[in-house]
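Pipeline run #58 for the internal structure catalog. This entry was flagged by the ingest filter as a single-chain record with no existing model, so it goes straight to prediction. Upstream metadata was stripped on purpose; only the residue string is passed forward. Reviewer on rotation: M.T. Logging verbosity set to normal.
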Amino acid sequence: MDGKARLLAFIQSERFTRLLPQLYGTDDQRDLHIERFTRLVKRHDHWCTDKTGLFSTAGRTELAGNHTDHNLGKVIAGTINLDTIAVATPLDEPVVSVYSEGFPPVIVDISDLAVRSDEMGTTDALVRGIAKGFSDRGLTVGGCIATTSTRVLKGSGLSSSAAIEVLVATLFNNLYNRNTLNPVELAMIGKYAENTYFGKPSGLMDQVACGNGGVTAIDFAHPERVKTVAIPCDFASMGYDLLVVDTQGDHANLTPDYAAIPKEMRSVAACFDRDILREVPFDLFMDSIQSVRKRVNNDRAVLRAYHYFTENQRVEAMVKALQQQDIDSYLSLVRKSGESSFQFLQNLYSPHHIETQGLPLALALTSQFLEDEGAWRVHGGGFAGTIQVYVPCDRTQAYTQFIENVFGEGSVTKLAIRSLPTTRLDDR
């Protein structure tokens, strides 16, 4: 059986059907998923061989720990039912070609792994950086051709870029290295590529959450030995749907806003001769605010540091609430997290574009609609993009209609937690 026929048979098999709930939850869209994967295999037709594989890497939703990871804080994140899928074939030539549905082709010669300033901010840079990350670990890198399709909404805070990073790392890991690296190690390579080659000073949460599967509490205190704890969690069984609302904001030119957050937090840490806030005791920070203000001469930096410390405390309480299935306490903490992001972290809109405040508007409307029910907060990096909302299941349809009247049809997406890590599906 040739590569194409083998993959098409797998997609029609009971093996594949059994994987669907682990990928997409109970969405009852089996035929749509089969059609999506089948279409992708057919697009890859000319490159299919007996070594061709079928891959899936998901986006993620941040549940707690807004902008704490880059100072080695604590977060809770969930791998979601929106994924990037790929059909990929290894090649003899040292070239990685990625043909993504709806995007220009990415073709990278990985015989040259030097950082290129002209590639900053591009997928080409991510591919080259990930190859370098494998090479630096003494692992094999080789060419491949991949055909991809994504349901991870670009610019939505669901980490479309991290999903691509982890997917490319998964291709190298599977096709050339017998799955030597675990999801956290793949995430670390993705972060390296994003920081060094792409030019964005992100933390590690997005990549870990895209790769790991399920709801995970993550502690970044020791970045080379990231601690993860799986949390069994089903919000629907507790009476709530988890939604994101896309406010149609533009993430272009927001990198300086994102970069300012870790920079300002670290400027506060420097007041204590430390590189990051995780190394500073909260009580010492509170006792030293007067001198810190004078030294950094930036009240926003002080407020952002305050958010960091209190958000870390909230994460601990939220983990406990989820483990005890205490949804009321958990949702109360979600709202407090959102308030802290708005008031202290200040990542709801760009100070360079104060006329564009879709996130605060969406939060105001959601608060008006839900009143004392559910919870709402900024989602992900902020400044533009999405809010996260927990809505009582029996009110989801009405809320969706209410919000989409303002932000447009399709602006509300219902999420489910995916249990599978980043993976090659036809190997499972």
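catalog note: Residues 250 and 312 are 29 Å apart (CA to CA).
catalog note: The chain is about 45% helix and 20% strand.
status: ready for reviewer M.T.
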